[in-house]
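Lecture notes, continued. The same structure-token format from the folding unit now serves as the input rather than the output. Read the line below as a description of shape only.
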């Protein structure tokens, strides 16, 4: 079956799994990633693609929740494919998984609409969490990737705006930069998810920004938080 949606039973309830499309030009990598996601109860690989064109075709037919996208591929590369996918399927979140940490490629991927960027040396558990984060519509950069683009962000010379965050908002902001989901932030700070959402809303309002991507990049550029090593 070309597109398959599975559910997992929890008592009398049924929960749809997060549907993932894996895109990579190496068959061994695709096979390995499928094996990683089989370890979870809430993630499901609905298909794979060997290049950007095949990824575009499968997203049009199957509408996955998350596309795990390589960058360097034949026919159509990952950035071009990501941009096209976000144009016709804005509800699908793209997570870049690449061996390249070039700052130019990272910034191009973000500009193309990717919801996150992680490197292929990432631990399996961290990759699983990353997929969950971007599926929630949140933005994620692996700390190693964040550190890579800091110099160029500072070089942009954006002038800071005047606002003041509470200590709790600073804690929430720091965890946002680390790519934590709202639930993980709540668990880490021992507060409710609704409280986290309230803090995130206040941060957006105080900064005068529209989404988490802008907040994270602004925080990095203006030294609002310490980047984890």
């Amino acid at each position: 079956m070309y597109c398959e949606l599975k559910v997992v039973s929890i008592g009398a309830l049924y929960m749809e799994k997060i549907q993932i499309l894996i895109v990579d030009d190496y068959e061994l990598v695709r096979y390995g990633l499928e094996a990683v996601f089989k370890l979870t109860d809430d993630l499901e690989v609905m298909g794979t693609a060997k290049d950007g064109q095949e990824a575009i075709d499968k997203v049009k037919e199957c509408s996955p929740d998350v596309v795990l996208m390589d960058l360097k591929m034949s026919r159509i590369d990952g950035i071009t494919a990501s941009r096209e996918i976000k144009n016709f399927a804005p509800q699908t979140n793209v997570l870049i998984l690449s061996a390249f940490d070039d700052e130019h490629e990272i910034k191009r991927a973000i500009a193309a609409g990717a919801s996150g960027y992680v490197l292929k040396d990432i631990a399996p558990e961290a990759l699983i969490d990353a997929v969950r984060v971007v599926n929630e519509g949140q933005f994620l950069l692996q700390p190693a990737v964040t550190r890579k683009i800091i110099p160029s962000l500072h070089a942009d010379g954006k002038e800071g705006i005047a606002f003041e965050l509470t200590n709790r908002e600073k804690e929430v902001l720091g965890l946002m930069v680390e790519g934590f989901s709202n639930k993980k932030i709540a668990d880490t700070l021992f507060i409710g998810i609704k409280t986290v959402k309230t803090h995130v809303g206040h941060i957006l309002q105080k900064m005068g920004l529209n989404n988490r991507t802008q907040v994270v990049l602004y925080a990095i550029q203006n030294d609002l938080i310490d980047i984890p090593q």
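Point for the exam: Residues 51 and 168 are 43 Å apart (CA to CA).
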